[in-house]
Design goal:
Length: about 375
């Protein structure tokens, strides 16, 4: 290899995040590693399905390739209709990263600054001096609407929406939990307000904005934001079930989106994962900021950026991830940035038996069965 090629190879290895001092794995070794990973994940989830009641879909990706994908259990426990790899699940709080990306897209288009206050977009918002950045990073101090909405919304047969939530806050002004930017506290209310900001800036409903700007461009044909006023006909629909196997029915809070409300499949979530490496939606520099911890006063290793939780594994590798739970569904979406490893787990019966991220990543790093 001549000097020019050597230097060029070294440069691009650095750019792509590879270690140029390590030998490049052969195609045979890569295929063997993929087989080992697939075998171990299949063994794990078959065991969890049989012994621990796991009911859901799993997808594992390595370096942009799907190495394992499977379904376990039923889409309908009563009829025993089996899940399909195409089945669609409510992804709950994993939705927050989509809301954050929508805000980032508007930021790149020059429609907002992270330092803007909510009043710039919602002039009659009842709390002063809360910025877009504080909503994104859960530092706003806004109380969680899931705890106060029922007190003020008496029409339980009608859906609460983001606009109706805003009216409740304007009329009753539930007390802030702390002054803006004093500390971190996870806030569903903040992400509901971010979705409302997207609507105010774009002039379109949040579900329409996401379909036109994210889902359709990425080919995410099974993904949508739930809108009770514009319900979708869902192919491969699933029912959600609680731990006791009781079916979970729609709730008046289901009309609020941004903090939750997105439905998707494992294949579509993998399209989303890959798009975040491509700059198809936002620039890498914009994502780098989103993947930066925003709460250094938060003492746990686990921190938060914009729509993503951020952590480091025992070996120092960086992951960005999010979990979710809502009304019979739970989900986990993990991305290890260095080697583009991906874990996607979507369940329609609440079950966290698959363990922690460190253990799941240790399976991805397995070399021997």
């Amino acid at each position: 290899m001549n000097l020019f090629i050597l230097i060029t190879t070294f440069f691009w290895s650095l750019v792509l995040g590879n270690d140029p001092t390590k030998p490049v794995e052969s195609k045979e070794n890569i295929e063997l590693h993929s087989m080992v990973v697939a075998t171990k994940f299949d063994s794990l989830f078959r065991s969890l399905s049989t012994k621990r009641g796991f009911n859901g879909n799993v997808l594992i990706g390595l370096s942009g390739n799907v190495v394992y994908k499977n379904s376990f259990g039923f889409s309908n426990l009563k009829t025993k209709e089996l899940l399909s790899v195409k089945s669609v699940f409510q992804i709950a709080s994993v939705s927050k990263q989509f809301t954050a990306i929508a805000i980032m897209m508007l930021h790149e288009r020059g429609h907002l600054e992270y330092s803007d206050t909510i009043q710039k977009f919602i002039p009659d918002f009842p709390y002063k001096n809360i910025t877009v950045k504080e909503l994104l990073s859960h530092r706003s101090g806004l109380p969680n609407y899931m705890y106060f909405a029922a007190q003020y919304w008496k029409k339980k047969s009608e859906y609460l929406t983001n606009e109706r939530l805003l009216e409740i806050m304007k009329t009753n002004k539930p007390r802030l939990e702390f002054l803006p930017d004093r500390r971190y506290k996870y806030s569903n209310t903040g992400y509901a307000m971010l979705a409302l900001i997207v609507e105010r800036i774009s002039g379109t409903p949040f579900d329409v904005f996401m379909e036109e700007n994210v889902f359709h461009p990425l080919g995410m044909s099974s993904t949508f934001v739930y809108n009770p006023l514009n319900k979708k006909t869902i192919a491969f629909e699933t029912n959600g079930y609680n731990r006791n196997r009781r079916k979970s029915y729609e709730d008046f809070l289901d009309g609020v989106c941004g903090d939750k409300g997105i439905h998707s499949s494992v294949d579509d979530m993998f399209l989303w994962d890959q798009a975040l490496y491509s700059e198809q939606l936002v620039k890498q520099t914009t994502l780098d900021e989103a993947f930066t911890p925003m709460s250094y006063d938060y003492k746990r290793d686990n921190n938060y950026g914009y729509g993503f939780r951020i952590d480091a594994l025992a070996d120092g590798s960086k992951i960005v991830y999010h979990g979710g739970w809502w009304r019979g569904y739970n989900s986990l979406f993990v991305r290890r940035l260095g080697d583009h490893a991906t874990i996607i787990i979507l369940c329609n019966k609440v079950n966290w038996s698959f363990g922690d991220i460190e253990n799941l990543m240790s399976i991805i790093d397995s070399r021997e069965i």
